[in-house]
Design goal:
single chain, alpha/beta, 2-enoyl-CoA Hydratase, Chain A, domain 1, about 50% helix, about 15% strand
Length: about 325
């Protein structure tokens, strides 16, 4: 996969460019041995990358969470879920490709899995509406949740959206009501629900499928009530101040763990999840497995109460 560098990674991009030039020169002329120089630059590049990722600001994390090469829902399903059978349609209006859902096996056990899919290229991003679901997407999620409870299957949700789609058609078909119904059902389920924010967790579009017993975030993902750009536009009518809003809103996994809003952080490879899909997907699978194990001994009523108490407690210590 061609590496795409973020603005703050420019020093690393420059070094990587020099490494590629030296490798090209070395390949074209066997009499020239540049291996020691290449090795020196590779070590320097690795050290610089580690140093940059040790000092990330909330805005940097926002950029990483949105990285186009970050693994998406389909990548996690392909690696973690066997015998995956996707289901489509809300049985009211139609289907929505922004939310993908279905049934499969996780570590050999049947589960329901729901998540937002942003797409990997122009064609797939348009198909999935950049991960911004319409009402029928959330009603499809509700349908899958009900089926999962009927057959006593745990639910795994993977969150990655800038927010629910705010178009006229979506609003006319009851966007807010669809999100509210999804949250309401999630609070009442008597089966284990595990949610992981793998990229962006944007507003009601995220919490509609993230009202879970265990909520985890990838180390460089974000979870917020509004996007930094939208917040800056509302507060100052200036989207360029998104950096200030990202810092003020406390949207990083580290902040949210401290507030008790999430239950754990999944460590990403140095340089972000987009640099090592295999490692981050394996780490995510391990965390999901641990979460399901912790919930396995609870009754349906206990699972329901634990989930309700968790969300009702959010913010109480800060009143």
């Amino acid at each position: 996969m061609m590496q795409s560098y973020l603005e703050f990674e420019k020093p690393v991009a420059d070094l990587q460019g020099k490494i590629r030039e030296l490798k090209s020169m070395s390949d074209g002329d066997d009499s020239v041995d540049l291996s020691s120089e290449i090795e020196r630059l590779e070590i320097r590049s690795s050290d610089l990358l580690s140093d940059l990722y040790d000092k990330l600001s909330p805005w940097h994390k926002t950029q990483i969470a949105r990285h186009p090469n970050r693994p998406h829902f389909v990548d996690y399903v392909k690696s973690l879920i066997t015998e995956f059978t996707p289901l489509a349609g809300d049985r009211y209006f139609g289907d929505d490709d922004a939310i993908q859902a279905g049934f499969g096996r996780f570590e050999g056990k049947p589960v329901a899995i729901i998540g937002q899919e942003k797409g990997h290229d122009t064609q797939s991003r348009l198909k999935h509406n950049f991960g911004m679901a319409r009402p029928e997407g959330y009603r499809k999620a509700v349908r899958i949740m009900k089926l999962a409870e009927q057959f006593n299957m745990p639910i795994i949700t993977l969150v990655d959206t800038a927010g629910a789609y705010p178009g006229i058609g979506a609003e006319a078909r009851g966007q807010a009501e669809a999100i509210a119904r999804s949250v309401e059902l999630s609070l009442n389920l008597k089966i284990p629900v595990i949610s992981v924010v793998i990229g962006e967790g944007g507003s009601g579009g995220a919490i509609a499928i993230a009202t879970a017993n265990r909520v985890y975030m990838l180390e460089h993902s974000i979870y917020s009530v509004i996007s930094p750009e939208a917040g800056a536009s509302i507060l100052w009518r200036d989207a360029s101040r998104a950096k200030d809003v990202a810092t003020a809103m406390k949207i990083t996994a580290q902040d949210l763990l401290g507030f008790g809003i999430i239950d754990g952080i999944i460590e990403e490879p140095v340089g972000g999840a987009h640099r090592d899909h295999t490692a981050i997907i394996a780490a995510t699978g391990k965390q999901i497995s641990q979460g399901l194990e912790e919930l396995s001994g609870l009754s349906g009523e206990e699972l329901q109460k634990q989930r309700r108490d968790k969300f009702l407690a959010i913010g109480r210590d800060f009143e």
